[in-house]
Design goal:
Elements lengths: L5 H5 L11 H4 L12 H8 L10 H4 L6 H9 L3 H9 L5 H7 L6 H4 L11 H15 L14 E5 L3 H12 L3 E5 L8 H4 L8 H14 L2 E3 L10 H6 L5 E4 L5 E2 L12 E3 H10 L19 E5 L3 H12 L4 E6 L10 H9 L3 E4 L1 E8 L5 E14 L5 E5 L5 E4 L2 E4 L3 E2 L3 H5 L25 E3 L2 H4 L4 H21 L6 H7 L1
Parallel strand pairs: 1-2, 1-4, 2-3, 4-16, 6-14, 7-8, 7-14, 8-9
Antiparallel strand pairs: 5-15, 10-11, 11-12, 11-13
Helix pairs in contact: 3-5, 3-9, 5-6, 6-9, 7-9, 10-19, 14-15
Length: about 475
């Protein structure tokens, strides 16, 4: 280990992530961030001051031992660093790319109080990529098989995290996915230029090598119910991690016009069904080349959609957001990248109507300007319409990216699983137990749309509780169940 003093460590500037040139990357789907070299990673790891009471661990939703893995990076022992991370995070290559570290571990970094925080996310990504390239195997499972069977519904980050923990505990694990490819939002919601599909496939293949069984095109709640999984298929427990895939619309006139998409459909067609390679792949998208595209929303999904449109040749690719840029929930890096790539930001602007021609094709939209009032329930200043500020803009394609709700399929066919007014599944926050015996849930189906790492944390918490339940046979009432009895 190097014997640098804290002062010497503070003096090292944070290393910028190497990137594709903006004017090249906005025309391709190759990854924007190119990753650290080994030399850059070691130098960045040297910025860590080895605090006695590191706050970064508490800032991580899965409590990775961040100081220990960074020390190993500093020593050049990258495989040992990967081993440390994987004790708590099954998908470091994913999290190193898409997690909002600036709001979590890096926000808590002591170095960041006076200087820029240590690039924890960049280092996590480097370590995971190094392991994938130099040690593409899997660690053997040493615990004996229990003979217990667990069904995972949904192959997104919550389901994959739960599956990884449960298979290492010796249980039989089967993952059911409604779509034809595994990975959930990691493959249908996040574009290739932010998260290459090969990384997700690599993690899926590793789980398969460990013995996890993956079943595609299985719409649980329709092709088979939760009760049938347990009563007829013999699963001892079920984890529901189906995400929040029901798109929200704004309820405005003209939303049914041709050319108005939900972000779900837009990104799923392009990311998962490879519409950007039509006609090599048979899922066409409206021709975007030389068209005017407007994306409504200010989150990461909106950034993904508008940057995708730009790559598909849009004449203009615009974010339309009713608040100011300060209130945007998207990652700062994503907003920065979008601006570099030529995305236009029309802030403090809200839609009123989408107008089509006689054949039903979107032609223009009517908008109005907004100003910020007092904070609302979200803590952000509420947008207030400016009277008389209406105006019209020509537009060919609109993408609505204002959030998602819960798909009601499972709840409709399993009425004894309690849900909230928002349609999310109610769980005990300590164990992720639902009100139905043997059924657990986690991720966006519980919280609503949130981050990948929070979903993974829920999957891990559920796996621990599932293991306890199927090992002991004891099902303790959740607070919701106790209240129902009373």
């Amino acid at each position: 280990m190097k014997t640098l003093t804290p002062k010497e460590r503070y003096a090292i500037e944070r290393h910028k992530m190497p990137e594709q040139d903006p004017q090249e990357r906005n025309q391709n789907f190759l990854e924007v961030n190119l990753g650290y070299t080994a030399e850059l990673a070691i130098e960045e790891a040297d910025r860590c001051i080895r605090c006695k009471k590191p706050l970064c661990i508490a800032g991580c939703p899965v409590s990775i031992n961040i100081p220990e893995f960074i020390i190993k990076v500093s020593e050049g022992d990258f495989l040992e660093a990967a081993k440390i991370i994987k004790q708590d995070n099954a998908l470091p290559a994913v999290c190193g790319r898409v997690c909002p570290q600036e709001e979590q571990c890096e926000q808590a970094c002591i170095v960041g109080k006076k200087h820029k925080p240590v690039g924890i996310g960049y280092l996590e990504r480097f370590v995971a990529d190094y392991e994938r390239e130099h040690f593409p195997g899997v660690q053997e499972i040493t615990v004996p098989k229990t003979g217990k069977k667990v069904a995972i519904v949904g192959s997104g980050p919550a389901g994959l995290s739960a599956a990884n923990d449960l298979i290492h505990m010796g249980h039989e694990v089967t993952v059911f996915e409604a779509l034809h490819e595994f990975g959930g939002v990691l493959v249908y919601g996040i574009p290739e230029f932010r998260l290459p599909k090969e990384i997700v496939r690599f993690e899926i293949e590793n789980l398969e090598k460990l013995g996890v069984v993956f079943v595609a095109n299985a719409v649980i709640g329709q092709s088979m119910t939760i009760d049938e999984l347990m009563d007829e298929e013999g699963f001892d427990a079920v984890f529901v991690g189906v995400g929040a895939g029901l798109p929200w619309f704004m309820g405005l006139p003209g939303e049914n016009n041709i050319g108005v998409y939900s972000a779900n459909e837009f990104l799923t067609r392009i990311n998962l069904m490879k519409a950007y390679k039509f006609p090599d792949y048979d899922s066409p998208m409206l021709d975007i080349k030389d068209k005017n595209v407007a994306v409504f929303g200010g989150g990461n999904t909106a950034m993904d959609a508008v940057r995708t449109a730009k790559r598909l040749g849009a004449k203009s690719a615009n974010i339309v957001y009713r608040r100011s840029e300060v209130e945007m929930p998207a990652r700062i890096e994503e907003v920065h990248h979008a601006k570099e790539e030529g995305i236009n930001f029309d802030i403090l602007t809200s839609p009123l109507e989408f107008i089509a021609n006689e054949e039903g094709w979107l032609q223009k939209m009517r908008l109005m300007r907004m100003e910020l009032g007092e904070p609302d329930a979200s803590g952000r200043r509420r947008p207030v319409p400016i009277e008389g500020s209406e105006f019209e803009v020509l537009v060919d394609i609109v993408v609505i990216a204002i959030g998602n709700g819960s798909n009601p399929l499972i709840q409709k066919t399993t009425p004894d699983i309690q849900t909230s007014k928002r349609g999310t599944i109610v769980v005990d926050e300590n164990t992720m137990k639902t009100t139905k015996k043997g059924v657990f849930a986690g991720g966006d189906i519980v919280t609503g749309g949130a981050t990948v790492i929070l979903a993974m944390g829920a999957g891990r918490k559920a796996a621990a509780a599932i293991d306890k339940y199927i090992t002991t046979g004891v099902w303790e009432e959740t607070e919701s169940e106790a209240e129902a009895v009373e």
